[in-house]
Amino acid sequence: MGSLHDQDLQKPLLQSEETPPPLTLLLDQSSDNHKEMSDELEKVLSSIDLPFFQRVWPAIWIELKLLWQLAAPAVFVYMVNYVMSMFTQIFSGHLGNLELAAASLGNSGIQSFAYGLMDLQKPLLQSEETPPPPQSPPTLLSDQSSDNHKEVSDELETVLSNTDLSFCQRVRPAIWIELKLMLQLAAPAVFVYMVNYVMSMSTQIFSGHLGNLELAATSLGNSGIQSFAYGLMLGMGSAVETLCGQAYGAKKYPMLGIYLQRSTILLTATGLLVALIYAFSKPILRLLGQSTEISSMAAIFVYGLIPQIFAYAVNFPIQKFLQAQSIVNPSAYIAAATLVIHLVLSWVVVFKLGLGLLGAALMLSFSWWVIVIAQFVYIVLSEKCKYTWAGFSVQAFSGLPGFFKLSVASAVMLCLETWYYQIMVLIAGLLENPEMALDSLSICMTISGFVIMISFGFNAAASVRVSNELGAGHPKSAAFSVVVVNIVSFITSAVSATLVMVFRNVISYAFTEGEAVANAVSDLCPLLAITLLLNGIQPVLSGVAVGCGWQAFVAYVNVGCYYMIGVPLGVLLGFYFKLEAKGIWTGMIGGTVMQTFILIWVTFRTNWTKEVEEAMKRLDKWDDKKEPVLVN
């Protein structure tokens, strides 16, 4: 390598040496609109000249538009990811009841463990430290969507702060502004989440049509193994979310790519450990009391999911890297295309090539890698990521211990949530008729998981909206956004719960052809409907917690409500009072109800002006931190 000039030592690895053009040249309509709506929302909420109701309605509309921009692509991506896994379980279910139980245990008990671990880094990209100032004027980074979002956010704060208007006169325009913001954020996110879930669900459907044994194995693999991995990876990846979002808002663009690489490094290293759990899934399941036949079949399914672990390690950081820049639509398009590929290949592999459970699992892993590769190609080639992605850098290897520490609270919070209902599936495997319990519970959990992808999209929107408004000094907009996003998410879940009750007698036939399983699922549907209603609020409040940095507090709440109340109560009702699967689920719903009420109480007692002050203090402190720049 040739010698480097002294002045070159200050340049990040692979960063362009050209002076970027003025920022205004690269703003696109979407970013400008987002900025305008944000400003408009704050104006509406702050207006004291209008009565309350005249402010509320426009504020709600603005907030919904902002949330739609954030959530729609994200929901779609999550749903595609889940659908791939779901169809794998469906295919397994058609192999037999035992196969369905095994696939469920593999997905929920082992795969979710890896998934949650990989998502641990997401909030880091949004909050705990702010990167150093960029070497050159920021450019190209704010596109039309981002600027538009900012303007609308400012508008919302102005509306809410206008004391010349009555409460009603402020609320109406504020609702309109908030609805615009929410829909812009939430719609793509919801779509992505749902597609991701459908991929997983389709795998279970294919497995279920192989037979009851295959359906049981897929259910056990999904719920007993995969879900633990999923929760762990999801938790670690979520530590990136806050840090990247605030770095982008502070116009410190080069550090987004560095944080992306750091997170990927940590998650890949974690994936190696998780792969060992997958490799020894059979003895682990036997140790947990599962039958030999189901454990053996579930282990075969889980072996095919090992490549998926490392797809998680790359996907979650990339996903949050893009969301921090309000780049949400490309992920939705990629997820939709991948879902089609997944369905076709899964059908060919399972039914035409006769590869059974292993083939279904391998196709799910392959589909996740298609998503990862497509998203990375977009980052490298897109002009929107030109300055947030400057190439691979050795700087990504610096600060790893501190980066890891910042993710722990978020990991604990998200893992405890993700694993909670997966533990219920594992406990159900210890009942007198484990195959029937696993089949019925896995089908209900699959449906619940699909619907909760919508709430996850609103979770992402809530996190972005709250963190953005706090960083912009808009306390009224932040508080108003919390109210609107929770109402919209709850209404969506209420519709889903109603549909579940209407189709309770036929809903299971998509997964398996057994009448006994259909009757068991129908009997559990009232509990499923209650769970869906709770899922309309709880994940959104968790998103608010991420935006505010309350992860540690929520982690303590989760431990107390879920594992000190919910799990023991479920075991007591299920085994001691002989209520079996229904008793286990009832007890765990009790823990969720308590956790939800605590989060509601804390959220609506929050002093949002103080939260803005705390955010400003953190930003001032972070601005004093200069991170060394490494060179090639």
From TrEMBL:
Q: How does it sit in the membrane?
A: Multi-pass membrane protein
Q: Region annotation Disordered: residue ranges?
A: 1-24, 125-148
Mention any one GO cellular component term assigned to this protein in its UniProt record.
membrane
One Pfam match, by short name?
MatE
CDD domains this protein is in? MATE_eukaryotic (cd13132)
Where mainly found?
membrane
Taxonomy, superkingdom: Eukaryota
Keyword terms of this UniProt record: Membrane, Transmembrane, Transmembrane helix
Where is this protein found? Membrane
Q: Name one GO biological process term.
A: xenobiotic detoxification by transmembrane export across the plasma membrane
Q: Where are the transmembrane segments?
A: 66-84, 185-207, 227-248, 260-280, 300-318, 330-351, 357-380, 410-431, 438-458, 478-503, 524-547, 553-577, 584-604
User: Compositional bias of type Low complexity: which residue ranges?
Assistant: 12-24
Q: Which GO terms describe its molecular function?
A: antiporter activity; xenobiotic transmembrane transporter activity
Q: Is Transmembrane found in the keyword set?
A: yes
Q: Which InterPro entries match?
A: MATE_euk (IPR045069), MATE_fam (IPR002528)
Tell me if Transmembrane is a UniProt keyword of this record.
yes
Tell me the protein family, please: Belongs to the multi antimicrobial extrusion (MATE) (TC 2.A.66.1) family.
Name the record gives this protein: Protein DETOXIFICATION
Task: Provide the species name.
Answer: Rhododendron simsii (Sims's rhododendron)
